[in-house]
């Protein structure tokens, strides 16, 4: 098959169906309706005179022809992403769009006012924030910058560690004697906390599970039990008390990451510099030593992402 004779939109349809294994999933990935995916797939199969997918109980499975076309589509997508990154990386303007991905907890507990400060200083840069706990892929331009707590940042990205997030056990001040616990649902994807709770023997006392840290905060705040929460988030809650010291096994580095092709883009460098200096004033908050509500005060020195090492190091 010759991919050059096929519109890119048709290749994207095939690739999305292979990735998602359903028409509905492909539609969500591409931002179009299930009916549109069905119609365009039918038109493509009719034009090529070959069946691209078999519908089975487990979902849409590519035929040999479909698999061949999807492989070509993936290669074309990789080439397009690489070209886009190189072109964006040459952009010296302090304007345009920056797509940032972070977690709901970081956004609500730490970053919202930081982003507001950045926009005040750089009014011509538009921030698009994707709140998600899922795995991010900056190579595919899911985002330009990721702000993530991680002990193992991807080797394909560059950036800097901008803090160390401390966590501790918290309980509602009117329920100090409770033996119940609030914990993570398996969908949260927090095995380190699950292991800690099992090791401490409190797993069996977990009466409420939720798939987000904000949900866990709400549960503890409602008196449903004790829970492990990021200090920067829970210390500002007047109704909560910290039980003991922060938990060293659950301390997690906070990273600011981007793709190597984007590191010298003016707006990426400006974002790195601004967040690094602001978060340097929040280290006590991240470590659970003061409330997250302390005002932002800029540092005396700015740095650009290119002054760090070539790779993200854990």
Automatic annotation (TrEMBL):
<dbReference type="Pfam" id="PF00126">
    <property type="entry name" value="HTH_1"/>
</dbReference>
<comment type="similarity">
    <text>Belongs to the LysR transcriptional regulatory family.</text>
</comment>
<feature type="domain" description="HTH lysR-type">
    <location>
        <begin position="6"/>
        <end position="63"/>
    </location>
</feature>
<protein>
    <submittedName>
        <fullName>LysR family transcriptional regulator</fullName>
    </submittedName>
</protein>
<feature type="region of interest" description="Disordered">
    <location>
        <begin position="292"/>
        <end position="314"/>
    </location>
</feature>
<feature type="compositionally biased region" description="Basic and acidic residues">
    <location>
        <begin position="299"/>
        <end position="314"/>
    </location>
</feature>
<dbReference type="InterPro" id="IPR000847">
    <property type="entry name" value="LysR_HTH_N"/>
</dbReference>
<keyword id="KW-0238">DNA-binding</keyword>
<dbReference type="InterPro" id="IPR036390">
    <property type="entry name" value="WH_DNA-bd_sf"/>
</dbReference>
<dbReference type="InterPro" id="IPR036388">
    <property type="entry name" value="WH-like_DNA-bd_sf"/>
</dbReference>
<dbReference type="Pfam" id="PF03466">
    <property type="entry name" value="LysR_substrate"/>
</dbReference>
<dbReference type="InterPro" id="IPR058163">
    <property type="entry name" value="LysR-type_TF_proteobact-type"/>
</dbReference>
<keyword id="KW-0804">Transcription</keyword>
<dbReference type="InterPro" id="IPR005119">
    <property type="entry name" value="LysR_subst-bd"/>
</dbReference>
<keyword id="KW-0805">Transcription regulation</keyword>
